[in-house]
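Q: What would this chain look like folded?
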Amino acid sequence: YNTTFLQSIASNTKVDKYANVIILDSKGNVLAYPYTYVNSYKQNNELNSIDSQIDEIIGSDGDSVKGEYIKFKYDGNDKILNYSNVSNCGMTVLGLTFEDTIFNEIDSGMMGIRAIIFLILLILIVAIVYVLQRILKPIDTIVRVINKKQNGDISAKMDLKSDDEFGIIAHAFNTMFNDVFENEQRYRTIVEMTNN
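A: My prediction, written as C-alpha cells:
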C-alpha cells in the first residue's frame, strides 16, 4: 500500500528531540525513522526485542487503546514504548524513547519550579519581616515612651509621624500626657498657693 501520506505525517511530527514515532499496521509492518520504507517490525531490533508485546498490540484487533506503554531494556538502556491505536484503520502509533530522557526532562522542569518556589518563599519572608517591622517598631516606641513616663520622665514624647492607627495613638498619648502634666502643674500651683 501507498505510505507517502503517512511518511509525510510521521516526518513532520515533532514529538520530542529524543523520541521516535513509529507507525505499526495490523500485519506487523512498521514505518519507522527515516520514514522512507516499510518493513516488518521483526527487522527493527528494538521492537523485535519485545516481540511478544508487539504481537499483543497487533492482536488487539483495532480495540481502542490509548496511552498504554511498555517499559523494556534494549542495548543496556531502559526504554519506554508508548502506543495508541488509531480507530477504524488497523494502525497503531508507537512512540519510542529512553526512560532516562523522560525523567531528565521532568527533573529539569522541576528545577525551574523549585527555583520559582524558592524565590516566592524569599519574597514572602522579606514581606513578612517588613510588615512585622512596620507593626512592631511603632509598638516598641509607644511602650518605650510609656515606660519613660512611668519612671518620671515628663519630657518623653511619642515621635510617630504617620497617618495610620499608630500615629493616631501616638498623638492621643501625647495629648493625654500633656493634659496630665498641665493638670499636675495646676494642682501644684494650687497646693503651693494654699500653703502660703
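The CA atoms of residues 23 and 93 lie 5 Å apart.
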